[in-house]
Each structure stands twice: as structure tokens, then as C-alpha cells.
Amino acid sequence: MVYASASPLPKFDFKFVLEENTNSEITVFLYKIFVKLRPYLHEFLSQMSKIFEIVVLTASEKDYADSILNYIENKTKYFAHRLFKNHCIVKEEVYLFKNLNVLTANRELKDILIVDNSVRNFALFICNGIPIIEFLGKDNDIELCKLSNFLVKLSEEKDCSEIIKENLVRFLLNKY
Q1: Residue 160: band (very low, low, confident or very high) from pLDDT cuts 50, 70, 90
Q2: Are 33 and 17 spatial neighbours (Cβ–Cβ below 8 Å)?
Q3: Rounded to whole angstroms, how far apart are CA atoms 98 and 60?
Q4: Would you identify the CATH topology of the domain 2-172?
Q5: Is beta strand 88-91 parallel, antiparallel or unpaired with respect to 14-21?
Q6: Above 70 in pLDDT, residue 26?
Q7: Is the dihedral of CA 175, 109, 152, 143 positive or negative?
Q8: Three-class SS string for the chain?
Q9: What is the pLDDT of residues 82-117, one digit of tens each?
Q10: How confident is the model over 128-144, as pLDDT tens digits?
């Protein structure tokens, strides 16, 4: 959804200060974070929120992610829920995987989609995942436009996981 950097960006949509405390000690680190929204983000979220329940599941810490999500939702609420790093699965004390099981209390796994720029993030739920090219801050990025057309078609299917499984190679080649 965004490109964020602690280094100043030539063009950015907003910036915020992230405060990091080290445990119970007095040490405080302040980071200025510069953020560029992916082109067509608001149009994409507006369209998709009419079709899907949008849940953010990020491997980021809550304070960092909330700063970005609050900016995105400044005027319009798109996200039904926000889930953070603590909702991810840790393997071998290093690798974080996004845990779609946290969403299955009142949803079936076959009806859950995850869009992520890293296949590793949804490797445990590969039949629910749609990879998207990483956003690197370029103004000419049109990935959300391409993805929205596919998601509209997918919304009409009974079992999204079967369609994803059938198209996995195409997705990995970024051919929605």
C-alpha cells in the first residue's frame, strides 16, 4: 500500500515521527518516517471495500502501522480490522508468517484472500495468497488497477482458494 523510508524521499505524501522506547529504560529513539502512497490506493480501497471486508494484517508493529493506516483512513474508513506483528506466526525465531487462522472465527478460510508483496508472508496459506509487485515509490505504478480487475472477477466465485490455486503460476509472474 505504501513505500516508507527513514531517509527523506524526493516526493512523499506525509511523514510522521515514530518513537521507540527500549523496554523499561529511559532510552527513547525518534525516527522521522517519510511515506508515499501507492498510486490509486484510495480508489482501490474504495472499490474493494464495497465488495470485500478489508482486514489489514501486517508484520509491522502497531504504532508504526497505525500511523500509516490512520493517514490512509483520514476521511474514509476502509479497514474492518487491523492486525499486527503479534498476530503473525514466528518460525525459527526469525521468520514471520501472516496467520490467516486469526480471521477464521467467523469466516471460512476458502473465503479469505491475502494480497502481499512477499510470497513468504503467506507461504503457510499459499492457496489464499495473491502476490503483488513491491511498491518502490514510483508514480507510474499501476499494480492496484490491474489487481482490482482480477479481484472484482474473483468476488463472484464460490471458492477463491481454488481459483488462486489454478492461477498461482500466473500470479507469481504478475499476470492477473
Answers
A1: confident
A2: yes
A3: 11
A4: Rossmann fold (3.40.50)
A5: unpaired
A6: no
A7: negative
A8: CEEEECCCCCCCCEEEEEEEECCCCCCEEEEEEEEEECCCHHHHHHHHHCCCCEEEECCCCHHHHHHHHHHHCCCCCCEEEEECHHHEEEECCCEEEECHHHHCCCCCHHHCCEEECCHHHHHHHHHHEEECCCCCCCCCCCHHHHHHHHHHHHCCCCCHHHHHHHHHHHHHCCCC
A9: 999 999 988 877 677 999 999 999 898 888 999 999
A10: 999 999 999 999 999 99
Residue 87 has which C-alpha cell? Answer: 498476530
Residue with cell 480471521: 103
The pTM assigned to this predicted structure is 0.87
Structural domain spans, the chain: 2-172
45-54 pLDDT per residue, tens: 999 999 999 9
Strands 129-131 vs 114-116: parallel, antiparallel or unpaired: parallel
Residue written as grid cell 504504532: 63
Q: What is the pLDDT of residue 20?
A: 77
Burial call 90-113: b when 16+ CB within 10 Å, e when fewer: eeeeeeebbbbeebeeeeeeebbb
Closest alpha carbon to 122 in 166, 58, 167, 176? 58
